[in-house]
Amino acid sequence: MKIRTHAESHIVELDDGSQWKIFPGDLATTLSWKPETDLRLEPSGERVNSHVLVNPADQTRVRVIAADESWPDGAVKNALKGG
Question: From what superkingdom does this record's organism come (predicted)?
Answer without folding.
Answer: Bacteria
